[in-house]
Amino acid sequence: MFSKSNGTDPQIVLWLDFPLRDITGRWVSSEGAPAVRIFRNDARKNGGFWLELTYNNPQAVYSRPVKEVSGIRYFDLYGHVGIAYDGERDVLLLSDYGEYIRAEEE
Predict the structure, then answer these.
(1) What angle do CA 25, 102, 21 make, to 5 degrees?
(2) What does the pLDDT read at residue 14?
């Protein structure tokens, strides 16, 4: 999980401070990790942002709410998966899955 105080990468601190609306949309991994979609879900109680992981073999979709504790955003999927975002390169980083780039709109 990411931590502002772990000191491993000073760049990651910049990646943790971003508005969630900046990361809404579809994301793909060049490393073969599951596809990701981040969206605002007003249909659920309290609304909020949700992350959806899509595995292709077999087809499985997991939707989880995006949570925040002490400035670190994450979702629970068999443990905490941290979320970071580099706005300059438009790259999403999931701690357990690696880097994602924004999917092309069809």
Answers:
(1) 40
(2) 60
pLDDT number for residue 42: 83
Contact 103, 91 (CB under 8 A): no
Backbone angles phi, psi at 13, to 5 degrees: -60, -40
Greater model confidence, 21 or 4: 21
With beta carbons less than 8 A apart as the criterion, state whether 1 and 74 touch. yes
pLDDT band at 35 (very low <50, low <70, confident <90, very high): very high
Residue tagged 């943790």 (tokens):
16
The three-class DSSP label of residue 93 is strand
Dihedral-angle region of residue 70 (phi above 0 means left; psi in -120 to 50 means alpha; beta otherwise): left
- Distance, in Å, from the CA atom of 39 to the CA atom of 50, rounded to the nearest integer, reads 5
Residue 51: name the closest of 42, 92, 59, 62 by CA.
Answer: 62
Please tell me the distance from the alpha carbon of residue 98 to that of residue 21, in angstroms, as a whole number: 20
